[in-house]
Structures are given as C-alpha cells and as structure tokens.
Design goal:
The structure holds two protein chains of two kinds. Helices cover 0% and strands 50% of the residues of chain A. The N and C termini of chain A lie far apart (35 Å). In chain B, strands 2, 4, 5, 9, 10 and 11 form a six-stranded mixed β-sheet that branches. Chain B is globular and about 45 Å long. Classes of the chains: A mainly beta, B mainly beta.
Chain lengths: 113, 110
C-alpha cells in the first residue's frame, strides 16, 4: 500500500473563501501531481512537481496554485473559491525510476456553494 | 494531442464471469498504466505496462505498443471488482504526466 494522504476528505465552503488542500507522502517520491476529476469523468492533470521548488502547470487550466517546499508535502491553494471549482481533487506521487508507477491519495471532494 | 479511448464504456457482469477491457491510444507511448477506482473514489494502480504482458492474480494485462492498444483481463469476477477502470498513458520523456481515458464502468452482480 502506498503512503499518501490527503486532508480534508470532504469540504463544503462558501464562495470567495480561501482554501488549501493538503497532500503528503512518506515514500520519499520526487514527483507529485494534482488531478481534478468531475463525477463520472476522467482525471485531468492540473499541477505537477519534479522535486523541491519545482512546480509546473498541467494540461487542464486551473485557478489553483501549488507549492513544494518539502519533498513530502504538496499543498494546493484556491485563493477565492467559486462554484465552478466544485470537483474531486486527487493527489499522486511517483518515483523517478524505471516504472514511474503513480500512487494516489484518497482524494478531497470539494463543494463550493 | 494524444487520444486515449476505452471500451466498452459500461459493462455489467454476473459474478464469476470473465471480461476484457480495451484501451486504444493514438500515438507512441513510453508509459501506460491501468487503474481501478473503487466506489469511494480511491484509485489503485493495477499495472505499469508500456509493453508486454503481466499477471497479478485474477487480473492480467497486455500492451501491444506497435499496434497502440492495451487489454485488461479480469477472470472470475467478484463484486469487489466493481468500479471504474482507467487506462492512462504518457507520450514522451520521463515527465510522468499521464493522459487518462474516459474509463470503463464495471458492475459485477452477485
């Protein structure tokens, strides 16, 4: 089993609030990712990081921002939540070795009213 | 960009039946992974299989990279196999950036 954690698991919040979704892993993986998934749909990459102080935007445009100050921690922040941000956010990590298998956290279901 | 298509989109099976899920991709890939998303939303990596065949218990997968498809076989299905199966590919480099297919939703009835 992979050791990757996300908090909170569920979040209901009002429009305009600032939120931070936490993601941490204890496997020492260099690479970390954030995906967005709407119900019944595929996952879309919104942010990724190859290591400390490295962050890049993914293929799906997102108003969120990320930081990578420590290897194990990759938080995602929304400065001003809107109903269009309602979705599930999944964090993943992988090793920078041959297989690059990705391990996923349990996800955060965000609802913005 | 690369297109990833999975079929069938939905599948209903009786417990004990076998099934084959397919993933077609439109460009060469150096990374292909199969995932299972359970009804609570957790994704579990089933296989890392850019080419060749692998088996893990009742599950096996085959990727024919030259023909741009991968197959996931589920034998003697169980109700716990229910959920959504995703195929995801990486096109080039060692970025780890995966492009996901739309998934196959599997329901196994007792």
């Amino acid at each position: 089993e992979a050791d990757i954690y996300q908090t909170p698991r569920y979040l209901v919040i009002g429009t305009g609030k600032k939120i931070t979704l936490e993601c941490s892993q204890t496997m020492g993986h260099d690479k970390m990712y954030w995906y967005q998934q709407d119900p019944g749909m595929e996952l879309h990459l919104i942010h990724y990081s190859y290591g400390v102080n490295s962050t890049e935007k993914g293929d799906l445009s997102s108003e969120s921002t990320v930081s990578r100050i420590r290897t194990e921690h990759f938080p995602l922040t929304l400065e001003s939540a809107r109903p269009s941000h309602t979705s599930q956010y999944l964090c993943a990590s992988s090793e920078r070795v041959i297989t690059d298998t990705q391990y996923f956290g349990p996800g955060t279901r965000l609802t913005v009213l | 960009g690369i297109q990833v298509e999975q079929s069938p989109p939905d599948l209903i099976l009786q417990e004990g039946a076998n099934s084959t899920l397919r993933c077609n991709f439109s460009d060469s890939v150096n990374n292909l992974q199969w995932f299972h998303q359970n009804p609570w939303g957790q994704l579990i990596n089933l296989f890392y299989i850019p080419s060749g065949t692998k088996q893990n218990g009742r599950l096996s997968a085959t990727t024919v990279a030259t023909e741009r498809y991968s197959l996931l076989y589920i034998s003697s299905s169980q109700t716990t196999d229910s959920g959504v199966y995703f195929c995801a590919v990486e096109v080039s480099g060692n970025t780890g950036k995966l492009i996901f297919g739309q998934g196959t939703t599997l329901q196994v009835k007792p």
